[in-house]
Design brief:
Blueprint lengths: L9 E5 L4 H13 L3 E6 L19 E5 L5 H11 L3 E4 L6 H6 L1 H24 L3 H6 L1 E7 L23 H20 L3 E6 L1 E3 L8 H10 L4 E4 L5 E6 H14 L5 E4 L4 E3 H15 L12 E4 L14 H7 L7 H14 L1 H7 L13
Parallel strand pairs: 1-2, 1-4, 2-3, 4-5, 5-6, 6-10, 7-9, 8-12
Antiparallel strand pairs: 9-11
Length: 358
Amino acid sequence: MKKGLDSMKTLLVTGGAGFIGGNFVLDALARGGCRVVNLDKLTYAGNPDTLASLQGRTDHVFVHGDIGDAALVKRLLDQHRPDAIVNFAAESHVDRSIDGPAAFVQTNVVGTLALLECARDYWRALPADKQDGFRFLHVSTDEVYGSLGAVGRFTEETAYAPNSPYSASKAASDHLVRAFRHTYGLPTLTTNCSNNYGPYQFPEKLIPLVIQKALAGEALPVYGDGRNVRDWLYVGDHCAAIRRVLEAGRVGETYNVGGDAERENIHVVKTICALLDERRPLAAGGKREALITYVKDRPGHDRRYAIDASKLRRELDWRPTESFESGIARTVDWYLANQAWVRRVLDGSYRMERLGAA
């Protein structure tokens, strides 16, 4: 029988102070039935404040460190004896990858390789029954598939065609995970998700950036003509999909995770403006939509992404519970209620300036 998440004693979660990883850790521990060892490098996007509610809990062990530090990872594996590794750790912002691709290769490729080697050696030394239940789940992106035209969706069989340094580095990590399955037998799983949004997202990404700038009455930058399309996935739905794949996914398989919510970027921005106008009208009056400013497009900006998640639905009975309309309203409300969190994450070097205009 496959080992369900509820029966797992320990998960090693990498990148668990970041946006998606942090949501996953909070949700997993709220549900109970597991212990989390949380390894995070705490780069600009890794935020301990996200995990503040877990302080003092014995079922959460936070470790400040790098997945590329093989000695540290080996020590954690030997000490905590996890039943699964869930790898969220990654440099993840396309604009930053344009400005500095080397960091993306270092973390997403070299770091993932080091983690895989440690996982392989740990798994090989496990007793047979523990080997059968062990899983290495690698969390990736739909951006590895490149750009779509006006029709069609990415499936698990779509050929990789990454167009940014970020997506190229994630494609490389996906290939390494596949290779470790086929070469060494490591029981791997891979998920490729569409654009996530929701609580605790660092405000360099479109939705939290627009929320913050619109609250401040600042110009709202929209790349190009604003007609680029993304499939928007509420982070809570993504976490549920990861749990389901970890519980019952077929070893060696890839599962696409999408929100079935394609929207043009300009539609997303206008929706946020309308929600904020309802909740926090501008002191000077007027509509926030007037703040929209079209700026020079991102170099190599993919036109459209869309995910076919039918395999996940068919095999594992997963489907998103949030529509874009319900999810974006929940997200706006969360940021309005958590401005203290936003102020603290912006205490560092990032000040919501444009990146990746090279």
